[in-house]
Specification:
460 residues, Uridine Diphospho-n-acetylenolpyruvylglucosamine Reductase, domain 2, Alpha-Beta Plaits, 7-stranded antiparallel beta sheet, 16 helices, 18 strands
């Protein structure tokens, strides 16, 4: 618990109205998109790097932990205050500071909502591609801290591929800038890339410089239905092998299709066993040609149905199949464990078969969908906690799913991070020497283990 004097000092830094200690306020910041919940001792809303620095300096002096938080939309417990202390919320720092149309860069504060930033640059004919599923409410600081991805990552990459520079408050309270506004720069270590995906354990981001692109001239959306998982997976490799890099290649397995069709009756043919939602963007004439090429390439691979949107309204209708997945999953079971493994593209059918075997072994539903273009599959283990033994089965299944991905040359997390939920499994993927090197970096920057302690690495 924080003593009264510490709370008063926090109020003097950010003003009293920006410090919350009431039970209801604390409850609002005790959870994220996981099933976990931990109550903080206080919630602090700073408005500048200087205020963040003063809070961290106080934390080092008094010895309480600080847990950075954006919108709290994470799927791994990365912002949860497991050790008490304070949750430091960055949403007051929510300004788009500038959009430079000459140099194609933008400078923003971490509390800017992802979709609002995309809309602002698009009004100027520019493009910020990273598109996590939470883009309507997730904040850019959180996107950087987790290195968020999304469907467009297959062509454009993840958040780190667009971060050119940062202003960061280190755990000790020092304010530094990393990177800059130039596309080249090799002076010293690349601290910018180190901080991207560091899950708020190495510093608190207070400004971001993003690279932007010209907005694509047009896009073309296609919904393709196959009679097997193998056909859909081979289609992914065949399209890219045909020298076409789609903007998105979204995958849905048979269990996912059943969920969506049962609830929303979208007219998916009964022989459909897998769906690829494909989108290309760029020059208008080129994408029409690419759509024809894609249909020709995938036709021999068990294609059951091919639908191509003629305009934006039809494109939205095709995307509806993908967007209705999450609301339909609750019909399977009330509790969802959403994991996000990645395997090489060619190994997608192999990992799906391994997951089907895990599902049969534990007799619990597992629904798979995700970004087939980069091998990133969202594995949704659906259980009812009221049924004895199902929660234990889920955790055993999760471990086996992670191991299956690793056995196939993949990783146990593509865009959700490690946080708390995957920390117990990190030794499946990383060697003791790798973990020791990472802990050494953490200790060098955060000698008192003040900032987001217990995340990524197991406690103790």
């Amino acid at each position: 618990m924080l003593d009264t004097q510490t709370v008063d000092e926090l109020k003097s830094i950010v003003r009293a109205e920006n410090v919350a200690t009431g039970q209801q306020d604390l409850l609002c910041y005790s959870y994220d998109a996981t099933q976990m919940e931990y109550l903080p001792d206080a919630v602090v809303h700073p408005a500048s790097a200087q205020e963040v620095a003063a809070v961290l300096a106080l934390a080092n002096r008094k010895g309480f932990p600080v847990f950075p938080r954006g919108a709290g939309s994470g799927f791994s417990g990365g912002a949860l205050p497991k050790a008490g202390g304070i949750v430091l919320v960055t949403t007051r720092m929510n300004r788009i500071l500038r959009i430079d149309t000459e140099n194609l860069i933008a400078e923003v504060e971490p509390g800017v909502v992802t979709e609002q930033f995309q809309e602002a640059v698009e009004k100027l004919g520019l493009f910020y591609p990273p598109d996590p599923a939470s883009l309507k409410f997730s904040t850019l600081g959180g996107n950087v801290a987790e290195n968020a991805g999304g469907p467009r990552a297959v062509k454009y990459g993840c958040t780190k591929d667009f971060v050119m520079g940062l202003e960061v408050v280190l755990p000790t309270g020092a304010i530094i800038r990393t990177g800059g506004e130039t596309y080249k720069g090799v002076v010293g270590y690349d601290l910018t890339k180190l901080l991207c995906g560091s899950e708020g354990t190495l510093g608190i981001i207070t400004k971001i410089i993003f690279k932007l692109l010209p907005y694509p001239d047009a896009k073309k959306t296609m919904l393709t239905i196959f009679d097997s998982i193998d056909g859909a997976a081979k289609a992914v490799s065949a399209i890219i092998g045909g020298k076409i890099i789609p903007t998105t290649l979204e995958f849905m397995d048979y269990a996912t299709l059943q969920c969506v069709e049962r609830r929303f009756s979208l007219g998916i043919p009964p022989e459909g066993r897998a769906v690829l939602l494909i989108e290309v963007d760029g020059d208008r004439d080129l994408i029409e040609k690419q759509a024809e090429q894609i249909q020709a390439i995938i036709q021999p691979l068990g294609l059951v149905q091919f639908r191509a949107a003629r305009d934006n309204a039809e494109s939205e209708q095709l995307w509806r199949v993908r967007r209705l997945v999450s609301p339909s999953l609750r019909d399977v079971n009330p509790t969802k464990y959403n994991e996000d493994i990645v395997v090489p593209r060619s190994k997608v059918p192999d990992v799906i078969r391994r997951i089907e075997q895990i599902q049969q072994r534990y007799d619990i539903p597992i629904v798979n969908f995700g970004h087939a273009g980069d091998g990133n599959i969202h594995v949704n283990i659906m259980i009812d906690k009221e049924i004895d033994g199902q929660e234990e089965k889920a955790h055993q299944a999760i471990r086996e799913v992670f191991q299956a991905a690793l056995d196939l040359g993949g990783t146990m997390s593509g865009e959700h991070g490690v946080g708390l939920s995957k920390a117990p499994y990190i030794e499946l993927e990383l060697t003791p020497d790798q973990i020791a090197a990472m802990k050494a970096i953490k200790h060098a920057l955060d000698p008192n283990n003040i900032l987001n302690p217990g995340k990524m690495f197991p406690w103790g």
